[in-house]
């Protein structure tokens, strides 16, 4: 039940308070990103338990994601996993990845924290 409520909350926030995937992709294109080529996306997920974060990070790394780990002690979900992958810049690809990460975190005391699109070595479009 809790995972269902978290999913409803996340989708409501996404729908009403965040830019849509189309807006995110449009912003990246405005910055010169060629959306017809695979581009780096980083998906952010956070866990309450470091063992869960370690296991998921290892699984994602085995699937080809570049993994970065961070810890935010003051957050109720302090163990962040940043998973970078290159995908085509279209709404369907982004939605598939988001659904994958939402499904993944529903199996743990964890949350999906959004994504960013990297369009140069130093800049990214963030939610």
Short description:
This protein is an alpha+beta fold. Helices cover 43% and strands 30% of the residues.
* Largest pleated sheet: 5 strands, antiparallel
Shape: elongated
Radius of gyration: 14 Å
Q: What's the rounded overall pLDDT mean?
A: 85
Indicate the percent of residues in helices. Answer: 40-55%
Helix and strand pattern: HHEHEEHEE
Total count of helical runs of at least 4 residues = 4
Task: Report the uncertain regions.
Answer: none
Cα end-to-end separation: 27 Å
Q: Let me know the number of strands.
A: 5
As a percent range, the share of strand residues is 25-35%
The structure class reads: alpha+beta
| Widest β-sheet, arrangement of strands | 2-3-1-4-5
3D architecture notes:
22% of the residues are buried. The protein has a five-stranded antiparallel β-sheet, covered by helices on one side. The chain is an alpha+beta fold and 127 residues long. The chain is built from four helices and five strands; from the N terminus they run H-H-E-H-E-E-H-E-E. The model has no long low-confidence stretch (mean pLDDT 85).
Features:
30% strand, 4 helices, 127 residues, alpha+beta, elongated, 5 strands, 5-stranded antiparallel sheet
């Amino acid at each position: 039940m809790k995972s269902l409520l978290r999913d409803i909350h996340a989708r409501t926030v996404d729908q009403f308070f965040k830019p849509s995937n189309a807006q995110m992709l449009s912003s990246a294109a405005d910055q010169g990103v060629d959306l017809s080529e695979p581009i780096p996306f980083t998906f952010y997920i956070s866990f309450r338990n470091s063992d869960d974060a370690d296991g998921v990070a290892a699984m994602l790394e085995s699937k080809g994601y570049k993994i970065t780990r961070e810890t935010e002690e003051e957050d109720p979900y302090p163990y962040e996993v940043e998973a970078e992958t290159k995908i085509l810049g279209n709404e369907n690809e982004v939605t598939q990845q988001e659904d994958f990460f939402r499904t993944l975190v529903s199996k743990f005391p964890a949350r999906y924290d959004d994504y960013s699109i990297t369009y140069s070595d130093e800049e990214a479009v963030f939610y």
